[in-house]
Amino acid sequence: MRVGCPKEIKNHEYRVGLTPGSVREYVAHGHDVLVETGAGAGIGADDNAYRAAGATIAKTAGEVFAKSDMVVKVKEPQPSEWMQLREDQILYTYLHLAPDPEQTKGLIESGVTAIAYETVTDDRGGLPLLAPMSEVAGRLSIQAGATALQKANGGRGVLLGGVPGVLPGKVTVIGGGVVGLHAAKMAVGLGADVTILDRSIPRLRQLDDIFNGRVHTRYSTVEALEEECFSGDIVVGAVLIPGAAAPKLVTREMLSGMKKGAVLVDVAIDQGGCFETSHATTHAEPTYEVDGIIHYCVANMPGAVPVTSAHALNNATLHYGLQLADRGLNAILDDRHLRNGLNIHKGRITNAPVAEALGYEMVEVQKALAA
């Protein structure tokens, strides 16, 4: 199979779908790899590094899309990219389709087989290809929130760790999954007063054990959510419903009860965001203000640290990518975790949460592939 890797074109996205190390693995499996010139510049990997790994360098993204049997990316394809996809081609990347009807329509019309990193599963019920970026985003959420909290950036002017004689800042984390765990780790490390809200009692017990009393855990009700948001200096939205749009847990009305200059960091923005007042921002203009509350809603947070995040992502995606390259659609049929990753095939939606969110009929994977 010929595997292609174009350069990412989303605003301030410096990650790359294939590192030189991953290219070597594909080549060792007997595949041809085509990489767009400059694709790895954001992680310090030049064209010569890719040539040394066995890749052929393409002059344009158009060449990559035209000549590849499988396209490996990081972020969802932009309009100029999905127009170049075609039937009998595999797209392997993050998609986040539920809040994005335009991209969904474009992929349906292309006929491509689209596999979303964020819905591939594992034997433990986790999302192994989403997890590394959730770890990065969770940790970054505190860095970003602490920066936005500075007075010069519009925030309250609070130091998260405080100093002797002055109370530390308060961080509220909504959701105790991978993002929430890593956000809490960073916030605790900075000396903040941290509360995690979740609706799973077993998960709250796990978190209590992990942090050994260094964070507060609280069952998430409307009342608890309001109280913790009202008292928080930074509120991190770390809610995930796999494949589906994120629920709007913090309403605009609730902003009036928050401290002026507090910061909302919406890590769920890729799935539409969990704050009613959220809309996607970029690293070029990461924040905006609503009713005196600073919002940080960058849709590709890990793109800010591409060296770390590109390698972490490749570590996770390589295994399934090699299966797809080695066995094509048979890999999807034979592996239930890859089946869960299939979102679109030849114009049909094969993921239930995406179909429900956007009003499409969902077709079972086996039926779609058989057709």
Descriptive report:
It is a single chain. The chain is α/β, with parallel strands linked by helices and 371 residues long. The protein is built from 15 helices and 15 strands. The model has no long low-confidence stretch (mean pLDDT 96). The protein folds into two domains: 2-127 and 306-370, 3-Layer(aba) Sandwich (Rossmann fold); 131-304, NAD(P)-binding Rossmann-like Domain (Rossmann fold).
Q: State the fourth-level CATH superfamily of the largest domain.
A: NAD(P)-binding Rossmann-like Domain
Structural class: alpha/beta
The structural domain count equals: 2
Shape: globular
CATH class of the largest domain: Alpha Beta
Instruction: Enumerate the strands of the largest sheet in spatial order, edge to edge or round the barrel.
Output: 3-2-1-4-5-6-14-15
Number of strands: 15
Name the beta content range: 15-25%
Biggest pleated-sheet summary = 8 strands, mixed
Short description, anyone?
Helices cover 37% and strands 16% of the residues. The chain is α/β, with parallel strands linked by helices.
